Amino acid sequence: MDPSAQREGKALPEASLPFHRAMPSLTHMALVELEKAGILKFLISQNVDGLHLRSGIPREKLAELHGNSFMEACPSCGVEYLRDFEVETIGLKETSRRCSDVKCGAKLKDTVLDWEDALPPKEMDPAEKHCRMADVVLCLGTSLQITPACNLPLKSLRGGGKIIIVNLQVIASAMEFLKLQIPPFVRIDLFEVILTQALSIDRKYVNWTLQVASAHGRRAPLPFIKSVEVSFVDNQDYKEAILQMQPFRLKRRTMQAKSFELVLKVNFIDGCGCQSVEINIPIDFKVSIDCFNPDKDAVLQRLRDTAIQDLCCGQNAVIERTAFLMPKSEVTVYAIVTNIVQYIKSSNVLADSLSNGNVKRQRESVNGTGTSRKRSKVHRRKSRY
Fold first, then answer.
1. Which CA distances in Å does 323 have to 14, 188, 287, 291?
2. Residue 205 class from Cβ within 10 Å (0-12 exposed, 13-18 middle, 19+ buried)?
3. How many angstroms separate the CA atoms of 49 and 194, rounded?
4. Is 20 within 8 Å of 82 (Cβ atoms)?
5. 99 annotated as belonging to a binding site for a ligand
6. How confident is the chain (385 residues) per 10-residue block, as mean pLDDT?
7. From CA 354, how far away is CA 359, in angstroms rounded?
8. Beta-strand relationship, 241-243 and 185-199
9. Alpha-carbon span 44 to 183, nearest angstrom
10. Nearest 5°: CA angle at 278, between 352 and 284?
11. What DSSP assignment string belongs to 90-138?
12. 77 annotated to bind ligand
């Protein structure tokens, strides 16, 4: 949205997708491949949508000059937390969460600047350094009107570099010329399944609670899940349940010696590539003190590879399991493929959005996904792009 129009109080355009479901465009993924090929050395973004980071650009090669709507940072130890939900504040204010480092615990802050905020040296200094060193600065999807960011490309000229300003979509042709293939984008989201148990007073029963929660904290929102249906395999003694409001929590009582298997049907919101996924969970109330921590990066990569090979969403895997004795509980973290976008070579820049094997045509722009944002007055932000 034009900054002057927003300052005049004009309404924001209707969003075709929730902001947290926005997908990287063909250009985002082309830049990822250019970085992998060693051609793109550093990327500077004025956007706050977090799509460059989500697309796969390494954090150490990215300067987000105006912040990231999905990022919180610890002002004490500097740790950054990328969220799957939009952080509720702007202007470098404290949020409702704390640093998870047990030695720190400081209140986190959002990373998005307001108009009067100066650009942070952590982002600006490496941006200036790389512009001075660059052989070529490629400007994509920007009017170069917002200062001081618009002056960064000029720094390359002093060192003999060049500036190329692209206002039309040519990245697909450039990738074809370089004989590089634009990789698909696979979005993987995380959630936790928490099983807590305690014996009844007469010790005949187990009172247990099942909760589906955000991997970012028990009180964090879970924006991509609409509802959770709980059923039981080959067992008529338990009543099925539909959990439609967060927190998704089910409380039941079971004979102590009894074991069974339940099925979680997780229903996703519009904007995800599949409607739902079913996960079978065996319950025997034996909590082991051993933790299950596989190679997370390897598990996530296998999920991506399988999703691309099958051309469908819904693949899931356990990436962590932790047991606690007080209270007696087990927390299992699941990773699940919720979107796949495959990009094709085409002069009019079309992307194939693949979900459950079906192909949906979606036109995209150089600036992002073509989606717009609808925010309440509380969250209204002065646009910077």
1. 44, 24, 6, 6
2. middle
3. 30
4. no
5. yes
6. 61 78 95 97 97 97 98 97 96 96 96 93 97 96 88 93 84 90 96 94 91 92 96 82 95 84 96 95 77 88 95 94 89 96 62 37 31 34 36
7. 5
8. unpaired
9. 21
10. 150
11. -SS-EEEEE---TTT-PEEEE----TTSPPPHHHHHHHHHHHHH-SEEE
12. yes
Q: How far apart, in whole angstroms, are the C-alpha atoms of residue 330 and residue 307? A: 28
User: Cis before residue 247, ω within 30 degrees of 0?
Assistant: yes
Strand order of the β-sheet with 241-243 is 241-243, 225-232, 260-268, 276-283
Q: Is 131 annotated as a binding residue?
A: no
Strands 136-140 and 162-166: parallel
Widest distance between CA atoms in the chain: 82
Q: Half-sphere exposure (CA, 13 Å, Cβ side) for 64? A: 22
What is the distance between the alpha carbons of residues 73 and 102, in angstroms, rounded to a whole number? 15
Which H or E run includes 31? helix 26-36
Q: Is 313 annotated as a binding residue?
A: no
Catalytic site positions: 66
